[in-house]
């Protein structure tokens, strides 16, 4: 595919694929998962031991699934529904094949640990219609009331090429892009660590926007403005301008914002299928055992209290008042839940970890989808020969509009708007129908001859993740100066570094990872937590397949001074 703004290095099929395994912790999770020796084992005396898993999103379900395979008994607690931010919904009264992805909807090939589980449960993926992607029929960029129709970047006015070149130059000058991308592709860990250590120290206090402004290539405000609106890969990135540039570099180094694929039938199928799946290789449990069968079909309800009890065990109280005590707990829910929804002992974590949890910065995000009778956007304008409607990037209220179909003449879906941060907050007070009316008005100004409304066959569905009671935001995005906080959270699974009285609860999930906003991060931190629980219960990995904690000292994230 071709990004809205191409990466600085052009790759060929002969080059090794990139994987989202760094640069902070360049561990090959895909190799760990694919090794025939498995992820490790616990002593037979630990078989059947209950381990609490708080949160039934992707991270929680992956952790529970792998712990079950080792012979442990995961007890999953879920306040809402299995899937977390992998949430797929239908449209009332419409064909069940029509679905809307309210959370994660596009996944890069560099998410190799995630792909392991997609393949494991037999899900199909297909290209996602990002702006100017090869499989996207057409894209319209509408800025300041002026629209441009394009199939490739070359179809846009020359200023867009200038912006593309400025971004490439900015990455090369300020972030050693080619060198790092090559090192990650070749899994050259020493070189990755050498480059990244220098950049973390240099850029931890820098915003994304400040990074652009410091580049001679982006001295033009007009170029920075266009870049903010149109961006690269998925579209505009100005909502990320206040965030740490390190967050953006993690994305571009791993090509996380390009070559996206969607899961046919919806992403929530992944955790649901893992929940029901009986592993082929399993210890202690009878063949045919699944997470669902261990839970009699449904997880435990919401956790309301977490506290430490005698013997350094963790006691969990749920919404029914049921109280159970565990030797280990994996906490995968949104970390702010520990500050608001769950009554927690201060003794659960060291004070520095509590500070990191409190400082976590979340991005707001909203979407609205409508079902339509067919992919009418593929109709041709008789006068121009162009598609009558296109994937649309605009500075109007809709910002990004995506067109999703399953073939000609079949019912289809439009994501009328996908927005973040301030753009998302603008929608917050409005109902789904009120949002739709504003969006149709904006699109009507871009496509005055297209009557979108007459194709709509059902009610809109919408989400504002900042208003979801068990999430309070879409995903973590570090602000400048937050590297140290993220390091504390990510490395929490290495509990031999913690005081003895602070062990036993393991943080995992999207917002614990270095690559928040991507399902890959949820999987990676789940695997870290599985390794940590295994070690706590006296287990170990096979010598031929060392886990993330076994090689930790060799690839530990850069540690910045506190003073």
Description:
By secondary structure, the chain is an alpha/beta fold. The strands form six sheets. A seven-stranded mixed β-sheet has the order 7-6-16-17-18-15-19, sandwiched between helices. It has a four-stranded parallel β-sheet with strand order 2-1-12-21, with helices on one face. A four-stranded mixed β-sheet has the order 11-10-9-13, with no helix packed on it. The two termini are 45 Å apart. 29% of the residues lie in helices and 16% in strands.
Main sheet record: 7 strands, mixed
Q: End-to-end span in angstroms?
A: 45 Å
Count helical runs: 17
**Content of β-strand:** 15-25%
Shape verdict: globular
> pLDDT below 50 for ≥5 consecutive residues: which ranges?
1-13
Structural class: alpha/beta
The radius of gyration over CA amounts to: 24 Å
The side-by-side strand order for the widest beta sheet comes to 7-6-16-17-18-15-19
Helix content: 25-40%
